[in-house]
Amino acid sequence: MILVGGIGTRLRPLTYETPKQMLPILGVPMIECVMDTLCQHGITDAVLALGYLPDQFIEAYPSGVIGGVNVTYAVEPEPLDTSGAIRFAAKFAEIDETFLVLNGDVITDLDITKLIKFHRDHGAQATIALHAVDDPSRFGVVPTTPDGRVIAFVEKPPRDEAPTNLINAGTYVFEPSVLDRIAPTGRVSVERDTFPELAAEGTLYAMPDDSYWLDTGTPQAFLQANVDFLLGRFRNHLVKDVVDGCWIHPSSTVDPSATLINSVVDRNCVVKANVVLEDSVLLPGVVIQNDAQVRFSIIGHHAVIGAFSNLGATCVVGASVHVEAHSQLSGDVRLGGV
Fold first, then answer.
1. 240-335 has which CATH code?
2. CA distances (Å), 225 to each of 50, 105, 206, 283, 297, in order?
3. What percent of the chain has pLDDT over 70?
4. Among 46, 73, 91, 212, which residue's CB has the most CB atoms within a 10 Å radius?
5. Which CATH superfamily is domain 2-215 in?
6. Which of 117, 156, 240, 272 is catalytic?
7. For 57-116, how does the pLDDT look when each residue is reduced to its tens digit (9 = 90+)?
8. Rounded Cα gap, residues 311 and 274, in angstroms
9. Active site residue 272
10. Is residue 36 within 8 Å of 295, Cβ to Cβ?
11. Rounded CA gap, 126 and 309, in Å?
């Protein structure tokens, strides 16, 4: 089960018109990267727990196959939060056996086969994959006993009060019996409700792992995901046609005088003379006019960056926005929206 119901607030304005899991990493929608990893571990069937802009997924994959995995679309009738979404989608798809749950905006090469074996070996009702981070305050932290039994589940503690730096990495294994403890109506959170209950009963386990892991939910993280793919850091998805640390779609035009560093130029883009593009992502249809400099920024579909403009960390330009010539922009700049 892939949770893709979030509205992507932190990635606005890109997510006003596009669900964050449909945003591309090197031209490939993020959801396909997730499914490709599942396919490598023998997963054949998945349920998409949809809430926000569900038609975009359904229209993009009308055959019901994504990345070699057969997909069932479960559209929430109303926002149900994480546990509520899991219960609704599982009942909709009639899941009656051990199943995986993944956050659709997390990119990881976690050994899913190993996680499932750990879950079964410990007789757990639910198992969480863990990942070590420097600052756990943005996540749920998970202290455990030496054998992996979860002692507590602490959601987003202050950095200096976190009992461990091992965080919930957004990949779980559930037994179907867990569904029965989730209220059938209303919003229920897996992090604030379900996991603490299971931990109190001693039936929640967790497995640390040092695999590649990235929550792509912020502009900085989305940029990092693209750079990591360029540099081959994500081992499950090796990208072809990376030249001098950059990926340029064949349909795009880049002037020979332009300088590109660790950047992605998606389809049907135009990069004109003397442009500098560094650690940035151009989504389809972007035009960068001559002598503009774009660094550590994301430029949305069909946006135009005017000549002699200078965009620095971290600008996010929405779809079809026209940035005027000679603009000087930097910091947490968000242009465009509804």
1. 2.160.10.10
2. 23, 11, 25, 14, 13
3. 98
4. 46
5. Spore Coat Polysaccharide Biosynthesis Protein SpsA; Chain A (3.90.550.10)
6. 156
7. 999 999 999 988 999 999 988 877 788 888 889 889 989 999 999 988 899 989 999 999
8. 15
9. no
10. no
11. 52
